[in-house]
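Hi L.,

You mentioned the student needs an example of a multi-chain input paired with its predicted structure. This one should do, with 271 residues in total across all chains.
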Amino acid sequence: MAELVAKSPCAGLLPISEGGVTVSEVDPGPITAIAPFRGKEKTLNTALTRAHGLGWPAPGQSDAAGDARIQWFGHSHALLMGVAPKASLANHAALTDQGDAWAVVRIDGKGARDVLARLTPLDLRPAAFPVGATARSELQHMQAAITRVGRDAFQVMVFRSMAQTLVHDLQVALRAVAARG
Amino acid sequence: MRIPCPLCGSRDIREFDYMGHAQALDRPEPEAGAQAWDDYVHNRDNPAGPTRDLWFHGLGCGAWLVVDRDTVSHEITAAALARDVKGGAA
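Structure written out for the whole complex:
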């Protein structure tokens, strides 16, 4: 039997830091995509609240309760992260294990927004994108999910296969922002 | 150009793909006849003014939208989820 070694998506690539902004890898724990069955949105919301203390997120919203986090992830689609889903959810929604499928990084520091502004067309001003807000958008041609996790902190997710490209593009943006001082 | 996605809010055009005229939502019955199918598959108007298109928010929420826009002024007057327009939620 082969001995398999777990390797995180950004292993050997992160952390990087430039001009007071740091990019580090996040271990999100289990990730499960939840897609409610037609007409089951209400019962799913109840089941989610009962099982994990989190309701179904409105578009562009994320929430956390203990280790469990829920993040809106597109049309009729959310991610449950940090905990394995309770079996009861399967009566109301299609559950897909997406653990290890996403590269998850955190961008921290005063210039974090300026770094992202070079890569995505999203409006990231605090009034338009407060803490807890999440969006699916473009990050240098990659399909990304961007969440504000603090005043100067963002979580960015892209497909695991694009981890190296993500780190490269972030590195270039970090340098450019730092160079402007 | 920006499109007001009903889920995501106003978003840059680069997040969307154009998917043709919204006529594609009105699929004729199989026996509707050659003319109806010819119109459905091939024949499109080229209006100077209001038109209705399908747009795919592929670099966003993944929804298909029905967008009303004006080809002369480029104004976008409405955007709705194709699922709602088509009544596909049932």
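You could point out the following to them. Chain B has two helices and six strands. The domain at 2-86 of chain B is CATH 3.30.2270.10 (Folate-binding fold).

Best wishes,
N.
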